[in-house]
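Possible race condition, two jobs.
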Amino acid sequence: MKSDRDYRPIILFIAIILIILFVGLFTPIQGKISFRIETLKNKLYALSNPPEEAVFVPQEIKPLETTIVPIELTSTPVAPVLVMIATQTPIIQPTATPTALPTATAIPLPVRANITGIKYEDQHGIWNYCAPTNLSMALTFWGWDGNRIKAGDWLKPFDKDKNVMLYEMQEFVAEETNLRSLVRSGGTADLLKKMISAGFPVLIEKGSYMQEVSGAYSWMGHYNVVSGYDDEKQIWIVQDSYYERNYEISYETLASEWRSFNFDFMIVYPGDKEAELYQLLGQYTNDDWANQNAFAMADEQVAAAEDDESRFFAYFNRGTSQISLNDFFGAAQSYDMAFSFYANLEPKTRPYRIVWYQTGPYFAYYYSNRYQDVISLADITLASTNEPFLEESYYWRALARVALGEYENAQNDVRSCLEVHPGFPSCTALAAKIGMEDSGS
């Protein structure tokens, strides 16, 4: 007997299920194929253009015109401070004499301490997501309702942007959360222990030899949230978004890795914890004192350096600290020394990505009127990768080209900058300054 039942809804339902299953299975495969194609392209580019082989050689070296004389570190600034605002344009801003700074709280440090309750996140599955992931971990510890994606959407509007700077992370905290943050250079192991034992996780930037997608190991910048330590085992406990939660790293290794970023650190905290934090930090609450302290530390590194690698990082840190003290000519000289030792390193050990993360040399050479050195350094930095998604390098090369009257080339750099980082304040401002129609990109 013939059935009058309509099977079309059932057939349609089965078809929809099959389509969902097909898409669900195919999309990861497609993603893996795309990832492997990108990896192969980058590997082939690196083989034909080895980034570690390129060496920047300054050509416009000038006699030192300004020098920072090491002085006794005090909590009172002795001159106006040059403030680098988000647009990376210097302005002179008078600094009022600060009120008495808190004296660092003298706390007997325990032999071990560990902060629990940090919501661990990894950075995998998305390109270059170290910064958003670590910042998210630092924020959620204090109750922020977000995750790496929420942070990354703001910090990395173009997801293949190679790097997020600490100042960008600080801007995100100020503009997108109800928390506060403090960024300083010249941190120490004792300072980390003091923060951790008092319940404040510390976000640090460091340089590590890590495995690339191609399988090779090379030096690259990396963030960690430092959350514990153990003096008996001589280890730090960090939330490492690349490796694992509660990752253990030796005191010696972290000191070496942290050194390559001038011992920079960032502390995120709620407003009601500010008084407590400032008591713990003492003179670190004063930016001028912290900059002078970092310069003194870099000078000590220069004096203690025993090989070309340590000399490279010591002079690089010295230059970076001189930038914060407005000594651009002195900084340029320090960077010249750093790059001379860089050339002596074994190619496979060269930290060729360093200007991806630290743009101090651009400041030094540009404000010393060494525009061709700015351009040459940017050329080498951008050529170090098949994916030159480095907005800061485009920006500084554009600035130098404007100074030399190369307006068409400068405009091309500004466009590239805004493609990498839509709305990047520095390039948006420069576009308007040189009369580009797409200055609002």
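Job #2 (started ~2 s after job #1):
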Amino acid sequence: MNIGMVCYPTYGGSGVVATELGMALAQRGWRVHFISYAVPSRLDRFQANIRFHEVEIPSYPLMEHQLYTLALAGKIIDVARYEQLDVLHVHYAIPHAISGFLAKHVLERDGIPLRVATTLHGTDITLVGLDPGFHPLVKFSIEASDAVTCVSSYLRDRTTQLFTDRQNIAVIPNFVNTTVYDRTRYDTAALRTQLAGDADVVLMHVSNFRPVKRVTDTIHILAAVRTQGINACLVLIGDGPDRAEAEKLCRSLSLCEHVRFVGKVMATAELLSTADIFLLPSQNESFGLAALEALSCGVPVVASNVGGIPEVVAHGQTGYLAEPGDIERMARYCIELATNGTKWQRFSNAARRHAVERFSIDCIVPLYEQLYQRL
């Protein structure tokens, strides 16, 4: 089977999942064609059965803004025609599903069938899609797709509430490569010392530092934990618009020597394996892929009880959940795990088991294969 995979190539969750899915499908013998404006960030090595097709965006003096949606549709048409795609899988509704729809109907005119599957990841529904200018396009792209999937039951419910009464939207959760995200495969002692110095407890957060992630909450949590005499530090992985504010808060709270800003890195599995507790205090999350990757590394998660996070983190078993902004309660949960080694180990073991048994590649990728075969 030839599968076209359209995604954003950056560090966001949708691009990560699409890339990991494509690589897993290629390992299973399918031919996968990535179509985007740049090589996906996690497509960092050669792999048989994978091809990348770059979307070149034309520039015309008459047209002030880039024509990515049309350029993408044109590239899909080209790849589908000459690589004989069976299925096009687009990740994120805008503009990918619209481009897929245009390409499909151009190809149909030439007698070339193409089925389009759309996976909704979150902000395409909860943020971008709610813009009055985009809402009718997102609604149309959902209803015009041959198949639609959501990464959580929460997101499916929001989609049907806000956009469509379509009933056959499947929930296929995000997944994690539990072989790569496994702390037992890394010698993390030296790396932990580099990241955390002599800290006894390492708190960690990974995100794109957008306001919805509430990155500054992690710094307030660290401050509260340290007031209890716990020698803790915080490692922040990623970058984005709220980094400057986070750095300013560290200075105002005199925590600079206890907070490490690592920036964007590829080796998240190895870094996560050095952590004791993962923090995800987001205002909203449609799934929480970073939390799942932490769980796979045996790191208990303290997170907000919002969106799809409760479908990933089992409260009182693999971590703890609190309301967004409840820094005091999140800090209390961190203190409980940091001061009770037996409980931490129980949570760590349960976290790893939970990731392997429910969210591994072997559990989730076959669901996409079955979807493609039905199409």
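The domain at 183-359 is CATH 3.40.50.2000 (Rossmann fold).
Logs attached separately.
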